[in-house]
Write a structure and sequence with these properties.
203 residues; alpha+beta; Glutaredoxin; Glutathione S-transferase Yfyf (Class Pi), Chain A, domain 2; 53% helix; binds glutathione
């Protein structure tokens, strides 16, 4: 099995999941959007993005699908298969469409765009994303009150997914500490080697 990655937002989640599950994957550093690599990469992901997992003759892109596949192969309940599965998927979907979408604006414009362009959007773009970030972080904070983890008090992939932006929050300018329960979740996750330093030993 091969897991193609870069050290960016979504591949970080997939690599952390693979590390957490001790998946027997070969980690392949990739630059799928580099003009010299795009055509070749399109064969394994038409979106020319990472992460991508190749396993058992199939190819999986999207961090969530990769976590699902690796969890199944490990026989783990990291990706829930019991009655809590819909709730886990609810938080995964919510994270993608709401929390990470807001956080992604700061991640992209403050950390990624400056590497290759000299352009910043209007301040209103940042203001709107910050309003959304604070609203959704408030929702997450409320959900975490009285719970150790997001779903059924056991770690699941939903905890990784809602935390997608947390490792980049300080550098991107996204407030975490204003939300004490979310900060606690971030601290708990940081105690896991797989989450704190998923790229340890990788290029
Ligand atoms: N929805 C996809 C997003 C994939 C994506 O946007 N990947 C970006 C990194 S966050 C990418 O491949 N960028 C080019 C690179 O990292 O070289 C997922 O969650 O896996």
């Amino acid at each position: 099995m091969r897991l193609y990655y870069s050290q960016n937002l979504n591949p970080r989640v997939a690599v952390a999941a693979a590390r957490y599950l001790k998946a027997p994957v070969d980690y392949i550093a990739a630059s799928p959007m580099h003009p010299d690599h795009q055509d070749a990469f399109r064969k394994i992901n038409p979106n020319t993005r990472v992460p991508v997992l190749t396993a058992e003759g199939r190819t999986y892109w999207e961090a969530d699908a990769i976590a699902c596949k690796l969890s199944a192969l490990a026989g783990a309940d990291f990706w829930r298969t019991d009655n809590s599965q819909p709730e886990m998927i609810m938080w995964i979907s919510w994270a993608t469409h709401h929390l990470n979408s807001a956080g992604g604006v700061y991640y992209f414009w403050n950390l990624i765009a400056p590497q290759f362009m000299d352009f910043q959007p209007e301040q209103s773009v940042f203001d709107e994303a910050m309003r959304d970030w604070r609203q959704f972080m408030g929702i997450l904070d409320t959900q975490l009150q009285g719970r150790e983890w997001l779903v059924d008090d056991r770690l699941s992939y939903a905890d990784f997914r809602v935390a997608t932006c947390f490792p980049f929050a300080k550098a991107a300018g996204l407030p975490l500490a204003d939300f004490p329960q979310v900060q606690r979740l971030a601290d708990q996750l940081s105690q896991l080697d797989a989450w704190r330093d998923p790229f340890a030993g990788l290029a």
